[in-house]
Design goal:
This protein is of the alpha+beta class. It has 8 helices and 20 strands. Bound molecules: flavin-adenine dinucleotide and NADP nicotinamide-adenine-dinucleotide phosphate (NAP).
């Protein structure tokens, strides 16, 4: 554990933005973390707890301390008739954790295969894909308070999970370092294959019986064909959340686009795919020299190599304004802006 000054963050964010942190340290143990929290640099400055850097955009030098979480370890801590309780340390790579579960037949996270980032960030925005969210498999998490260093166990009900939301993104923003998460996984799989193209992909495999491994393979196949690999093309996944709008707003869109997709949320509201709105507005594949909108998925903004965070932020602002004027819908950014 060493506090460095003026550290480049380029290798620590999947957008590949070249930006400098005034102070930077990595921690491998909770003891390292609590020692760091006692240093004047951490006490006096703003802090950023960093996982895989796959859900953030740096738009200026980070004038504070970046603390990179490297806590490692996965253990089965308990089981009952129906469930395995598996605790993963926050610095574990999310996809490796999913593979660990699939190898041991712990069911429930297979739809969340190939999501970049670390376990510790997974509750932050209640990560979700193909009809499964962290809240569906979450048991509890442990976190250390950044100011007074006390440890607290957050049970499911305390986390206020919502669509790409949790208490850690709202009321408790910047207050906690999540150190580990315990997941409640099924002994008997309850496969969720009715979402997106999963069924179609499974059909291609001609299987007699479908396992969690097959669902994971299908998800990996679909994701690899649509989403840019951050190692090759900088991005942070979906830049915007899917808006939830009143039905009358959707009905007015339908007048011009009768086949506009929407998914019911309640009696009065529907979710409209933001990617569809952005594509209809003509942004899919748009390039602005250093950055642009991905040509296979309009929800993803990409860095072609040397983009500045401010440029990508400006692109997102332009898209938000255009969607507002064309559809009367306000898009919200999903990516954390720093
Ligand atoms: P970071 O980007 O490092 O951090 C994100 C936020 O969490 C920051 O505010 C950070 O301070 C905070 N944070 C991180 N770790 C901790 C901790 N231990 N304690 C306290 N705060 C912490 N997301 C989805 O939900 N579903 C998807 O299907 C999906 N697909 C993606 C595909 C691609 C190609 C990419 C690039 C991203 C995708 N994402 C998706 C977004 C992203 O992968 C997730 O949000 C992921 O959980 C972020 O993890 P991270 O470790 O990279 O977090
Ligand atoms: P898709 O299958 O093309 O579907 C487009 C959108 O429609 C998705 O965003 C999804 O909403 C919604 N949708 C599709 N089928 C649905 C159903 N049966 N019920 C309710 N909503 C439905 O999406 P995609 O872009 O290829 O992504 C596939 C999955 O991976 C999605 O769940 C998506 O959220 C997730 N993903 C997330 C990120 C990220 O960074 N957050 C990046 C890539 C992919 P939801 O998004 O609400 O599921």
């Amino acid at each position: 554990m060493q506090l460095l000054s003026n550290q480049s963050l380029r290798a620590f964010n999947t957008f590949g933005i070249d930006c400098v942190a005034r102070h930077f340290a990595e921690f491998n143990t909770e003891e390292d973390l609590t020692s760091l929290l006692d240093t004047p640099e951490v006490k006096k400055n703003k802090r950023l707890i960093l996982g895989g850097g796959s859900n953030l955009l740096f738009t200026q030098p980070f004038d504070g301390v970046v603390l990179k979480n490297n806590l490692q370890g996965i253990e089965l801590i308990e089981e009952d008739n129906d469930h395995y309780y598996v605790r993963a340390q926050a610095g574990e790579n999310w996809h490796s954790f999913v593979m660990h579960c699939i190898d041991r037949n712990y069911a429930g996270v297979e739809n969340l295969s190939l999501i970049p980032g670390c376990v510790g960030a997974s509750p932050m925005q209640n990560i979700g894909a193909y009809g499964v969210e962290i809240k569906d498999v979450f048991h509890r998490l442990e976190a250390i308070h950044i100011e007074d260093k006390h440890k607290h166990t957050f049970e499911l009900a305390e986390c206020s999970f919502g669509y790409r939301e949790s208490i850690f993104k709202n009321k408790e923003k910047n207050n906690w370092v999540i150190t580990n998460v315990t997941f409640k996984l099924d002994k008997r799989a309850r496969l969720k294959t009715g979402y997106g193209a999963i069924e179609e992909e499974l059909d291609k495999m001609h299987l007699d019986q479908i396992t969690i491994k097959d669902v994971s393979k299908a998800v990996i196949q679909i994701r690899s064909s649509k989403l840019p690999d951050p190692k090759i093309l900088g991005n942070a996944g979906s830049f915007f959340k899917n808006p939830v709008v009143p039905i009358d707003v959707y009905q007015s869109i339908q007048k011009e686009w009768p086949t506009a997709p929407a998914y019911p949320i309640s009696e009065h509201e529907v979710k409209v795919p933001a990617g569809w709105l952005i594509e209809q507005a003509g942004w899919k594949g748009k390039k602005r020299i250093t950055h642009g909108v991905h040509d296979k998925q309009a929800l993803v903004l990409v860095n072609f190599g040397d983009a500045r965070g401010q440029e990508i932020l400006q692109l997102s602002t332009d898209i938000i304004a255009d969607i507002q004027s064309k559809f009367n819908i306000t898009l919200e950014r999903e990516v954390n802006i720093y």
